[in-house]
Amino acid sequence: MFQSMILDRMKNTFFGELKSWNFSIYAQWLGILSIFLCIILGIVNLFHITLVVLFSALTIVEGVLLVFIELPFLARICPVSQKFQTFTNTFASNYYRGLIYAIFAVVTFLGCIFSVTSLIAAGVVLGLTGICYTFAGIKGQAFTSSSTLGGTGQGNNDAPAGMV
Description:
The longest helix has 22 residues, at about 25-45. Helix 2 (about 25-45) runs antiparallel to helix 3 and helix 2 packs antiparallel against helix 7 (about 120-140).
């Protein structure tokens, strides 16, 4: 019964966030999908003989960086340097997050020069995430982390003052 209550709460929160029209929340969910795709498809494509291996390794690194950007509470759990923490905090605004996702998408798509692989799926989702973050910035929506993922949810702002 307790598990059912938790699942119902998560489901209601998730669907409520989807109805919010807050593009930073959509982008955060796409970002989580990007993390999984980057790491999984990066590992799968490591077995190519062409230079796709280099882009597979870069995609894995992108996925790990995105873990710390999208889930900043992990930086408190995992031992990271202050310099790395400062680097990930740079991406507190929608525009900077959109930029980093666009850069990662371009890098991932560059692997297609050598061979078209499943990394294209990671590139597409990275690009869509970047578009959602950029659109949230254009609409003036403050960065809002999903309450389903442990954030503050709709109506609250996780970004430092002055950052949109």
